[in-house]
Write the C-alpha cells for this entry.
Amino acid sequence: MKDNLEELRRRQEAARLGGGQKRIDKQHENKKLTARERVRYLLDAGSFEELGSLVTHRTTDFGMADQQYYGDGVVTGYGTIDGRLVYVFAQDFTVFGGSLSETHAEKICKTMDLAVKAGAPLIGLNDSGGARIQEGVRSLAGYADIFYRNVRASGVVPQLSAIMGPCAGGAVYSPALTDFIVMVEQTSYMFVTGPNVVRTVTNESVDSEELGGARAHSTKSGVAHRTAPNDAACLQDLRKLLSYLPQNNREQPPAVPYEMGSEWREDLGNLVPGNPNQPYDMKEVIRGIVDPDSFFEIHPDYADNILTGFARLAGRPLGVIANQPLSLAGVLDRDSSRKAARFTRFCDCFNIPLLVLVDVPGFLPGTDQEWNGIIVHGAKLLYALSEATVPRITLITRKAYGGAYDVMNSKHIGADLNYAWPGAEIAVMGAKGASEIIFRKEIARAEDPEKKLAEKEAEYAEKFANPYRAAGRGFIDEVIEPRETRRKLIRGFASLQHKEVEAPRRKHGNIPL
Ligand code: HXC
C-alpha cells in the first residue's frame, strides 16, 4: 500500500512540475504565471479539482515516445469563483509550448462537455504555440473538435477566454467563438498568420505586438473585449465579469442584496448641456443611474462612440448600451453597430435585461462607411435588438434622429418601456439640416437668407425639437424628470421581471452577417 501511494505521489509531483523547473523559470522571466498559478489565482482558494493530470500523449514520431509530460500541456478541471461552479482549462506553455496534441484537445473537450452538462461557465486560459507540430492532422482534428463544442455551447453556458501568451493560426478561432476575450498587454498576441508570413505575402513589416497584440485587438479589430496589464489583473477581470452573469441560459443573473432608499438623483439634471451640439460624457449619466461602482465596460477602447457594459440596478445585473456624445457626437457607424449588436445578443442569450440610453444624431455618412457595409452592420444592431426578448427599457437623453431613432431600441422594434428627458429631440434630423432642405427655395428667395434660415430653424425646432410629439403618439411612454430616472428604471425593470415573449416558429433567424 505504501508503495502504491508513493508511486501516485511521485506521478502527481511530476505533473505539478509540467515541463520542469527550468521552463517554469523562463515563463516567470517572461512576466507570465504558469498554468497552475493562473488557475489558483482565478479560482477561490483551495477550490480547484483537477481532472486528467496524468494524461500523456500517444505520439511516437520524431522521438516523442521518450518525451512524456503528465497532463500533456493543459491543466483542466473545475472549481468555484465567489462560490459559484466554473470549469477551466489552462494551457501550460512549459510543456511543448502549450501546443495542442490530440490528447490535449481531448482534455479540453471533456472539460467543455462537463461544463455544458453541469450548466456552468467555461473559462479558457490560452497560452500555446498552436498545433503540436509533431502530430500533424490529429492536432487539427483536435482543434475542430473544440470549435464544434464552442458553437454547441454558445448561448447555453457563458464562455470566457483569456489570451495570456501566443495564440496563432487556426487556434484563434476557439477564443473567437467564445463570448468574451481578455488579452494581457505585451505578453499575448493573436493572429491568423504571423509577421513572417505577412512579410512574405504582403511585403508589410510588422512585429507580433503591432500585428496582433492586446492594443491592436482592443482598439482596431475589436477582437478583444478588454485588456489587462498583467496575468493577475486579467484573471481578476474574468472574476468580475462572471459576477454579472448567470451560470447558464436557464438561470437569471445573480442579484446582490440591495435595500431601497431614496432613489432620486438630483445631479442627473445637470449632465446634459442645453446646447444640442455640445458634447457631454454619457458615462456620467450611466454612473448617475446605476448602483455605485457597478459599471463594468465591455470594449472600452473600441468604437467608443457607443458604450456597452454590465451594471447593477438595485442589485440586479443589466446590460447597458449608450451612445457617447463625446466621441463622433455619438453617431452610429459600422463598428459601433457591430459592437452593440454583439453585446445585445449576449445579454439576450443569458437573460440579462437591457437599458439603452439614446443621444444619437444618426448614421455616419460617407464612402468609407457605405463601401464597408454600414447598411449591413447597422442592420445587425437593428436585428439584434428587434430579436431580443429580455426586458428592454430605453431612455432618450437628448437627440434621437432619423433611422437611428428606430434602431436604438425604439418602441416600434419591441422595447418594453420608453422614456425621454424633457430636453429630448425626436425628429428626422436636426432643425438646421431639416430647414435647409424643406425651406430651400423660400430661403434662397429671401432678402436676408441667413435670417430666414434662422427663423425657419427656430420654427422647426419649436415643432419637433422636443419629446412631446412622440409622447403624444405613445412612442414615448412617459417624459420624465432626470432626477426620477433611477427610480423609474428600478420599478420598470422590476415590473418586467417575468416578461414572456413567444418566439416565431423557425429553425433560426438569419441575422445579416
Ligand atoms: C510543438 C512547440 C510548438 C508547437 C512551440 N513548441 N511551439 N512544440 N509544437 N507548435 C515548443 C518549442 O519547441 C520549445 O520546446 C517550447 O515549445 C517553447 O518554444 P520556444 O520557441 O522556445 O518559445 P518562444 O521563443 O517563446 O516562442 C514561442 C512561439 C514559437 C512563438 C510560439 O515557439 C513558435 O513560433 N512556435 C511554432 C508556432 C507554430 O507555427 N505553430 C503551428 C501553427 S499552425 P523546448 O523543448 O525547447 O522547451 C496552427 C494551426 C492550427 O496552429 C489550426 C487549427 C485549425
The two ends are 61 Å apart (CA to CA). The mean pLDDT is 96. The longest strand covers residues 392-401.
